[in-house]
Write the structure tokens for this entry.
Amino acid sequence: MALSRLNTFTTKSSLFRQLPQNAKCLSNLILGEPSGPSVKTPIPGPKSKEMISELNTIQFANTVIYFTDYNKSIGNYIVDVDGNVLLDVYTQISSLPLGYNHPDLLKVLQDPDNQRTFINRPSLGLFPGQGWPQKLTSSLLSVAPKGHSQVTTMACGSCSNENAFKAAFMWYRNKQRGGAPITEEENTSCMMNVAPGSTPFTIMSFKGGFHGRTIGVLSTTHSKAIHKLDIPALDWPIASFPRYKYPLEEFAEENKAEDRKCLAEVEEEFERFNKSGRYVAGVVIEPVQAEGGDNHASPEFFQELQRITKKVPVFWFCSKNCNCRFNSVPFFLKKKKQNGAALIIDEVQTGGGATGKYWCHEHFHLPEPADFVTFSKKMLTGGYYSLPEFRPQQGYRIFNTWMGEPSKVLLLDKVIEVIKRDNLLSIVQASGKKLMDGLMDMSKRYPQHVKNVRGIGTFCAFDSSSAEKRDEIVAKLKEKGIQSGGCGDLSLRIRPALVFQPYHADIFLEKFEKVLKKIKTV
Amino acid sequence: MALSRLNTFTTKSSLFRQLPQNAKCLSNLILGEPSGPSVKTPIPGPKSKEMISELNTIQFANTVIYFTDYNKSIGNYIVDVDGNVLLDVYTQISSLPLGYNHPDLLKVLQDPDNQRTFINRPSLGLFPGQGWPQKLTSSLLSVAPKGHSQVTTMACGSCSNENAFKAAFMWYRNKQRGGAPITEEENTSCMMNVAPGSTPFTIMSFKGGFHGRTIGVLSTTHSKAIHKLDIPALDWPIASFPRYKYPLEEFAEENKAEDRKCLAEVEEEFERFNKSGRYVAGVVIEPVQAEGGDNHASPEFFQELQRITKKVPVFWFCSKNCNCRFNSVPFFLKKKKQNGAALIIDEVQTGGGATGKYWCHEHFHLPEPADFVTFSKKMLTGGYYSLPEFRPQQGYRIFNTWMGEPSKVLLLDKVIEVIKRDNLLSIVQASGKKLMDGLMDMSKRYPQHVKNVRGIGTFCAFDSSSAEKRDEIVAKLKEKGIQSGGCGDLSLRIRPALVFQPYHADIFLEKFEKVLKKIKTV
């Protein structure tokens, strides 16, 4: 299977191991990986069903797809408790960089010194362990987006975005203070959630975006109603994210107009909110809106967005003794103009290599580094890169008990070493090309089911004709031994690990076509 | 040292090991634990200082106390990179249940099957691993507060509280809907952060409380201004938490009046917010306000608070076709009365055994189980227990990529086994008595520096005369080899691990008295 592609990727890298003489399947390049999926039972199978019932007595368990045997899962293959073996192109919602049970990660765990890292979780803001700066340097900073030298670790994606927002608010207020000290009134009022200590600042987000589920970032999430329903939300600015027509080359003009329309909205929202005193301290955006349906926007859109965030004029009345909303003491007017809001690029799902670069926004060639780049998922640790001007000015402002976890960075360190050693970003590019070529081909041959094919690296997706058809395709793929996932209203997203090779793409495409042949048109 | 106390706690438990024949210090009961602290350099020492500078090039590092050698730290002793050995009664902001490098936890890491749990992090809401319900049962559910059978795991304390709030909002809105289905208008409006889909609901919190640092829970945190300054906040109800006069027996009447005053405020806030349509869906409270200064309240206060949350009358206009703020379709009035808001007990710092029970609120003998009990820190995993009526009605509402982490529950499982096997809760009670007796004694002999001694189990604190004096005591304790921590404006909190034994309390008290003798009075 796909043997003709083998040579292209046969390098000296240790990913490609010599096969045992008695290997039955020659396409097995990761030691122990099966040659392909095998499905024995309906999914979920009887054992999974029983376990789902058990779990359901303890917590809501109706979202569980199946129970997994993590001892048997290997590489790109997830094995369920009923013995079904599936090629996993969803990888725990895009969060496994090297697939299952990668031997190099197992070795990290087998080292007795490392084992202690997993049981002595420090409060990193107070008592970091020996070697921590070096570990940050060899892992996170070694793959930092260009221009970034500062990194802060957190536990998860939501927390990373929440703290990036907080750092942006502090930075914005500091600019507004213009060097004036923090007042007693600010200190006392913030304790009761009111001005001037609590600010009326806002973060702009985009329709279709997803930035997490805690209440602050949930206010910037606009992907699916079920995530937000019944939860109080902050009334912050929301602009439109481009929705392109495909194929891109055919609709170049329409899509450019779409960019302009969305950017105009951004400027309008800036003006509307800044004029009302609800200053926009930051703009948060994903390089590709993943959860919201794999919505892509052009490099030009992102470049122009950055220009807008940097140039946006803000007028405020502010001095130690002004009468602005932050200070009610004697009248002393000082009109100031300062530019700019923070650009927060959320790479929680796009980061870590799946687009063929460590960071998806590197494809956009932004004129300047983004102010914040947040991450989690494939990076194993949450956190964010930020420019030096966003460092907190006082202690305990960007802080929590754990501030991430050294054991995650220890694993990430090895992941990055393997990515570099095994040239996994090149493999992602090659596998991505194969996936995209295959999907484009399908979209021509099955245009009723495969529309709007789009992708960068292996970060690919297409639209089906309806949510129901999409769900049917996901379900039928599972029957054929492919674990995929939906996103947005009618998209199917492909999110393999970085060890997904071109021949895995062949397996996927072969099964996919079998499914497409069986799907009825409307 | 403290050998006379030894027999009381010499049981057959494996915590108490046979000392090697050549053991130099007889007080060493945990294998490898030193006999006492030893300080060689100023703290931070030269190596720590160098590392702090290094870290400071990467991130704000001015909060770091010293760099720690986690390979050498053992039991109750933290060892820094300069070789200083400190008795740790702060334990990574109260988050280490069994101290450093507990041999039973190391064994968990050495088991090859367990090692895989640390490198295959699942999306627990979709693909839990084999044995996950059993693991939840043997760990979290085996120590669940009475009446609780439901548990949801999360990554950290903030996230646990955020999700408890969300579950409370959904429950409240469901009650308000009275069985009516979710409308299309709700689904579309919530995507833009507006009513009726986004609710105007609120969570009541208490002055001095701490419930985390993400923007939702930060709105319920009122411990220190620096945590909240410049961050937008939700204008939610805030009531006063009792502030008692000590000694309690002397001020019984005043303190009862304080309870009544605070409870009256709770009722007033309920009325004020419910009348304005900003319904109070939940009340969040710590059994002891830890970060805010170790503020205790009586069992009667908590009992009455629960009665209020259960009885609070709520009138609303609601039906499928009413004209309430949630629905603007034709006029059809239906006045409903329903009782109750959710009581969310935040045991992030108090939970896990330090009070001599698994859950501090078990000391209060509440008439009914709390609606939510949230946890993190010593429980290693975040999460919450909740009554069955708070289960989400649909999937993906209480959800995120990881939903906690099996490796944390694996470690917790062992921690709980050790707590039970070694009777650690009895040891906490005994050590707590020793600590409290000692602190009370100090408060009589050094009344200018040790005031308002209070505690449950080893969860103890006292006030100093000022923030400066408190900081001076913390600093001088460190010079004597004791790592403690401040809280609130002028309190010092003691937060040892569960393996802190009465003779450790003796060591602490001996060093503490030496410090007190040196502190000048104003």
Notes: The mean pLDDT of chain B is 91. Residues 48 and 67 of chain B are 5 Å apart (CA to CA).
